UniProtKB/TrEMBL annotation:
It is found in: Nucleus. The lineage of its organism: Eukaryota, Viridiplantae, Streptophyta, Embryophyta, Tracheophyta. CDD domains: B3_DNA. This is REPRODUCTIVE MERISTEM 39, REDUCED VERNALIZATION RESPONSE 1. It comes from Hibiscus trionum. InterPro entries: B3_DNA-bd, DNA-bd_pseudobarrel_sf, REM16-like.
Length: 315
C-alpha cells in the first residue's frame, strides 16, 4: 500500500508572478509528481500569513495541473501583482501556507489595505473528505516562465559528491568580463522569456545527488538592499542552525565567501530566509547580473558549505 506523503517528504515551491497570472496558476510538475501515488486533492486550501483561508480548485488541462477556481479571489484579496514572490509551503494534506513577498524582498501584509470579501474569508472545514484526482506520470517539461525552487531530498554527507555537468563550457568563465551590478542603471527587470530560457538551461545542465536549490538573480538582489531570498524549507531542513553563516564557493578554484543568513519569525512562525551580510561581495566578485541563475548545492551540512554554479543570462 502506498504511503501518504508527509510534510517532511514535500518540498515547497515558489512562483514569481509574471504575465497573466490572475486567472490560474500552474503547479510545478516536479512538485506534482510527489502526488503520483497519493492523489492531489481536487480542492486545496491556501492560508496566508494572517491565517485566512481560501478554497481553490485544482484542475488538469493538457496533462498539466493548475490552481483554478478560487485562485482569482486569492489574488484579488491578497493584492498580488506582477513581480511578487509567492512561496507555497506544504503543511498537510490539502493545506498550503502561503507567504507573499513584494519585489523589494519584504513580506506583503494586506491587513488595513483591503477587506477580504465575505465570500472568500470563510474558514474552510477539514471535516469533508476531499475529492481526489489521479496524476499521470508525464515527461512534459515545465515551460512556465515563473521560477520554482525544488529541493532534492537525498541526505548529504560530510564528504563532497561529484556533480555532473552537461554544459558546453564552464558555468563561470576563468576571467569573466566585468558586468554591471549594484547600483547600476542596467539593473532592470527581466523579461519572462529570457528568464525561462536560462532556467531551463540550468535545469538541464545541473545534476547532483546533493540537496540544491536555484535562485534567479533579481534587481533587488544586486541593487538597493541586496538581500537574497532563499527557500525557507531548505534552510530549516538542511542547514546547521547552530552556524549562522554559510560558506559559498565557486568552481574552479573554490574561492570561498562567508555570508550570513537569517530566518525571519512573525507571530511565532518562520516566514522567510535570506542571505545578507557579505552577499554583495560575492555578487560583485562573480559579476552577477539580473537574470543569471545560481544553483546552490549543499556539500557540507556541518559548516553549511554551498557550492555555487552560475548560469549566465548572456553567454
Amino acid at each position: 500500500m502506498a504511503r501518504e506523503a508527509t510534510p517532511g517528504d514535500m518540498p515547497g515551491f515558489f512562483k514569481v508572478l509574471v504575465g497573466d497570472f490572475s486567472k490560474r496558476l500552474r503547479i510545478p510538475p516536479a512538485f506534482a509528481k510527489f502526488f503520483h501515488r497519493t492523489p492531489l486533492p481536487h480542492e486545496v486550501k491556501l492560508q496566508n500569513s494572517e491565517e485566512q483561508c481560501w478554497q481553490v480548485n485544482v484542475v488538469k488541462i493538457n496533462n498539466k495541473l493548475f490552481l483554478n477556481k478560487g485562485w482569482k479571489s486569492f489574488v484579488k484579496d491578497n493584492l498580488l501583482e506582477i513581480g511578487d514572490f509567492v512561496f507555497f509551503s506544504y503543511v498537510r494534506r490539502s493545506l498550503f501556507a502561503i507567504t507573499v513577498f513584494e519585489s523589494n524582498g519584504c513580506v506583503k501584509h494586506v491587513t488595513g489595505k483591503k477587506k477580504q470579501s465575505e465570500a472568500t474569508a470563510k474558514n474552510v472545514s477539514d471535516k469533508k473528505r476531499p475529492v481526489v484526482i489521479k496524476i499521470e506520470d508525464t515527461d512534459d517539461e515545465d515551460n512556465d516562465i515563473s521560477v520554482e525552487i525544488l529541493e532534492n531530498v537525498t541526505k548529504v554527507g560530510e564528504k563532497r559528491k561529484r556533480t555532473e555537468f552537461k554544459q558546453s563550457g564552464p558555468a563561470v568563465p576563468d576571467s569573466p568580463k566585468p558586468r554591471e551590478g549594484s547600483g547600476n542603471k542596467n539593473v532592470q527587470a527581466l523579461k519572462g522569456k529570457e528568464k525561462s530560457l536560462v532556467i531551463e538551461r540550468a535545469k538541464s545542465a545541473f545534476k547532483s545527488e546533493n540537496p540544491f536549490f536555484m535562485v534567479t538573480i533579481q534587481p533587488s538582489y544586486i541593487g538597493v538592499g541586496h538581500n537574497v531570498n532563499i527557500p525557507l524549507d531548505f534552510v530549516l531542513t538542511h542547514f546547521n542552525q547552530k552556524c549562522k553563516n554559510v560558506i559559498l564557493e565557486v568552481p574552479p578554484g573554490d574561492k570561498t565567501w562567508h555570508v550570513k543568513y537569517y530566518v525571519n519569525v512573525s507571530a511565532k512562525r518562520y516566514v522567510q530566509a535570506k542571505l545578507h551580510s557579505r552577499w554583495l561581495d560575492f555578487a560583485n566578485e562573480n559579476h552577477l547580473a539580473v537574470g543569471d541563475v545560481c544553483v546552490f548545492e549543499l556539500i557540507n551540512t556541518a559548516q553549511n558549505i554551498l557550492r555555487v554554479c552560475i548560469f549566465r543570462l548572456n553567454m
